[in-house]
Amino acid sequence: MAKKKGKKSPTARRIDVTQYGIDLPAMIAEIRKDLDGMTHAEVGARAGMPAGAVSNYLNGSAKPSLGAVAALADAAGGHVTVRYDRPRKPPKGQ
């Protein structure tokens, strides 16, 4: 069955994570330090992405998703940690 053409779902757009304090380019800069000596093809094979995508992410010509950054971190032998901090409850009486 062919896909219907029409409006994209509201979740189809990429959310700008910088508004939440996540600096993906800084993460990529840190990951690059641990990829020395590896070709883009080798990194891509480990990360499950094409060598061209690896090149574009590492040289800054493409914006990676958080998932792509996590895959690159894994390829470098590291990991990305994302956590949820619960909201602080206001003190009683306020």
Automatic annotation (TrEMBL):
InterPro entries: Cro/C1-type_HTH, Lambda_DNA-bd_dom_sf. Residues 28-83 form the HTH cro/C1-type domain. GO terms for molecular function: DNA binding. It comes from the Bacteria. Transmembrane segments: none annotated. This is Helix-turn-helix transcriptional regulator. It comes from Roseiconus nitratireducens.
